[in-house]
Amino acid sequence: MHRSIGKRIRMDDPIPPEYDTNPMTPMTEATDIQEPFTPYTPYSNHAQTPLHNPMNEMYTNEHFDNVVPQHQYAPSVYGGAPSPAPHMEYDQQPMSQEPESQPEVEPAPLNYEEPMTPQGRGGRITRARLRNAQNPQVSPPAQQEAPASKRMPPPAPADDRPKRGRGAVVRRPPNETINLDEDSLYNAIRTGRTALGMLVDEWIEQYKSHKESALLSLMQFFINGSGCKGKITSNMANNMEHAAIIRKMTEEFDEESGEYPLIMAGQQWKKFRSNFCDFVAHLVKQCQYSIIYDQYLMDNVISLLTGLSDSQVRAFRHTATLAAMKLMTALVDVALVVSVNLDNTQRQYESERQKTRDKRASDRLESLMTKRQELEENMDEIKNMLTYMFKSVFVHRYRDTLPEIRAICMAEIGVWMKKFHSNFLDDSYLKYIGWTLHDKVGEVRLKCLQALQPLYASEELKGKLELFTSKFKDRIVAMTLDKEYDVAVHAVRLVISILKHHRDILTDKDCEHVYELVYSSHRAVAQAAGEFLNERLFVPDDEFANVHTKGGKRRLKNTPLIRDLVQFFIESELHEHGAYLVDSLIESNEMMKDWECMTDLLLEEPNPKYNEEPLDDRQETSLIELMVCCVRQAATGDAPVGRGPNRRIASVKEVKQVQDDKQRLTEHFIKVLPRLLDKYSADPDKLTNLLSLPQYFDLNIYTTSRREKDLDELLKKLMKIVDKHNDTDVLDTCAKTLETLCCEENASIFTRCDVQRRTLIEKTIVDKYTEALDDWNNSLEAGVKPDDDETFALVSSLKKIAIFYSNHNMGQWNVWDSLFKTILEAQTVPYKSPPQEGVQYCMRACFFSLLWDLHQCEELAASGAGQAVDDAVQESKTRLYRFMEAMRDMLKLEDCEDYKEEAYITICDMLVTFCNQLASNPHHALSELIYEADDDLLTVLDSFIQSYVFIYEEEDDQDEHSKIEMLHKRRNCLASFCKLVVYGMIPTSWGAGVFKHYVKSYNTYGDIIKTSVGKAREVNKVNCARTMVLSLTQLYKELPLTESNQVPRQSNDFNSLKELAKRFALSFGLDAMKNREAVTVLHKEGILFSVSPRDGNMIMDEDVPPYLPFLEVLAEFTNKLLRQDKRVILNFLNHKMTCPLPSSRHKNEDWQPLELYKQSLLHGDSETITAGTKKNYSRKNKKDLEEEHEDLDMDNLSLDENDFGGHQQHEEQSLVHQRPVARKPKAKRARMDPPPMINAGYEEQGHHVASRPARQCTTRSLAYKYMDRYSDDDDSQSLM
User: Fold this and answer.
1) Alpha-carbon span 295 to 1058, nearest angstrom
2) Which region is the signal sequence (predicted)?
3) How far is 819 from 799, CA to CA, in rounded Å?
């Protein structure tokens, strides 16, 4: 007999007390590899998982829904679920969940004495015991107890143990390998220089010749695979229990690094993890016929892995759990092979036994019986191993504090259930997956769903899942709203599987939860919900095959499905988001591209014979909208705006699919579109959608298919529609469609379309405008007020000019003069001008006219026409300056909000278009078109912003929709002005009027202002800092004064000013070196303001400067100064404070802001934020620091006002040296601890924070996007 290495555990023995532990490894916040080793301590009431199928009575227990303590399991399978540990609680989107209690972890006593393995064996009769009973052998003498001198000395008490040092620790780089024998299993698998099959074969040969050394190398492999460089000697293996060996390895573990192979980054360690798992599986596979049944290898390996999996060291626990779970998976594969062989042997035995006596071979019958008995014993052996490991490892580790370990357990139990469902697909095992569905970590929840997915996909296994489905169905449905999108996607797919095999268990409310997800902003979730919709609602109806229309045409098979789709869209009440519904279904349901079926429903009348109801007006509108959305996505291949994440580059196959779809839809709609336009010509909503269809055509098909007549008919329809309709959306869509048809890239149809365009513009728009204008003027000259028809004709013609001017150059028809004259008349003689709406159209038309003039000048410059360019530029310049002057006058008008808003938007857009970037054009004549705003214009713009945008008193008489529309307009106005600031088109200082509203208007404009501050800081940090101070000083001057002309420092307004300063300070981020000069300039500007007199009056001796309280606001920025800069600022303050200070100023409350500011500069040097870069700064002596202070002399910093308002990029001063702050010794923390918060949130400081808008499935595209709370980190967001 071979001698056992270490303590061997027999599979038929009960679980040893030292491994009968609490399912949750006791870990506090700082408990991990840094803590002293805690031995295995006996826990009572270990988990018992029955192998047999539970009786039905188990689920009818009256305590079915009660939560039991952590260490106990009630007789019922699911009702006895342990209450979740902290990692089982997580935040999800709203879905009702019952609260669950926290488990109480029993503290482990600090005793190192381990009970010996029980020697008594009983119960199962194995093949080896049977042979020994039949052939008794002389037993070797019993092993004597090791002498006292060789025994392990008991560990010292906790108080007497040597303390681990806190000195400098040399951390091993992640790629540095453990210094081991090059021939070890660990190095062979890590380097991958030897094939796993060959490596396993070599180990088996070694095992056959010398079991102890082979087992020792395997044990060493698991130790080294955990990142431990300790070595197990043969002496340790022969004389020490496994628990003692593990304790010894724990003491030699490199606890400072926190790294071990399974979590190391890099391709090498990713490959090692794969090889590690494959090695375990391959080893069991190669040993499946004999070695795993020798009661030596598996007993010792399982004993070691069980002990390691319960270690306090997470590296041991993680690695051993992975090895144990993979070992169980490999044993499941072996069990399947044994099961197949057992079935084959049983069939052969039955076949041989049923033969007649004269044909029966008794020797073969006996051999089959012996083989069957041996296979049955092997199956029992494997099942005992699986049962023991499940109770000893899985039951304890599926609730481990490390999410990676919990994920491993859930992934592997799913494999066992799928492969060995006769043994594992049982409610006593399924309950562990059900409980873990509530895990806090998304990856663990995802593994649970992935484990259940193949089980529900099998028709064969659905009967075993009925009870589990009824118990955890609500939880699975709730997970479709999971905050982790991957989890939500798999949850929806699992609900689809439940719907297929357990259709009756899902209620209508459950289905509605999934229905709503087709409008989700996440594309994968929406498409998964679309698949659910296909399975639940869009089921083909075979009875509809013989239905015909009134005209005799046969209805297509998708007709009832499209009717259901339209009804679903109407009932969802999200009529503006049809594109999202289409995107959810277009890749999974062919009906979304059945253009013929859709148009037949619109054009063909139903036959009363088949009880088919016609579509009502709402259904027709919805169907047309969905049809156009389908056409748009099929022709472009682009998902709707806002449905992320962004799609990858389309593959060749996808591009080919888009081209084919575009060709098919063009061939179909070329024929039917004129009929659709005729039928719905009186309905603006339907007409708008139908008119957009040609924008997605393959226009070359008009010529290749000889369909020029259809093109001419379409152009005539457009002209007729423009002539008769006055709806803005209809006219705008007509203009864009006509622009698409007249594109010069479509040379085959350009000439034909261009002729029709000229005819349309001249006869339908310009001629009617001239006629309407003449009628208007004739009425005024006759002293008669124009009637409603004349007014409508003039306003309608002006609308058409403005809309078509935005897409087509109408300069050749010379309408500029009359349009501009109308604008001037609106300012001087309002009674002669058209209504305000008409004047606004004139302003838009003139704006687009100037844009077309600029475009024409650029084309002439590119063609090399010298004199023609100069003439065109001079004419455009004259028009530009006259128009801008007229817009300025419009902004100054009183009681004309519509004029002022239109003029404001126009001016901002013109400043962007005609900015100094025109100077970069190769033709220098274009630089004359640059228009720069003067102070008067900027003052008018700022005044409009203050009076129109920043309004804090809401009008109660407006409904909610009107308020949203008004807010949208104001946000656009603010964004237009902020663009001018951040892109250098106006001086940065003009942004102060916007920045000062950051806190007060945070809920409505906070995202815009924050982005503007960030962009301005990127352009020029110093100018941005000056603008911050300017906004603070402007707000300070607006504060109400007391009777003594002092600012009340305890007032709410003053506290709001300090809050704004704190917001600005946070926006600088953590890198003080990067913002060094900007922060120092900010302090200097603030000091100069604080000591300045009010209204130019001189400050008398011993008078308190009137703006001195501003220093209290300025103190909010001192934590952004470097230590040496604080001293410089203090010297600057003392230098500028020229007035003599009273000796008793500390008793005078008026001087307290000065003392407060000085204290903030002198206090907390050790806590001052230093440079956030990763450079190492050398230490300096006092002399070097004084020289550095001189280099950063505040008086030498530029304060040129021209630079403040200029557009040059500020070059940051390079400061290479910095004196490092003395660091305190860093205390050790457990690896699982979250990083400390650097800046506490405002919620923790007691400040009121506006709640973020609830996440919607889709959001409108506003000028800016919302942001989270008061997140003022140093990030940048782009302007929309």
Assistant:
1) 76
2) none
3) 12
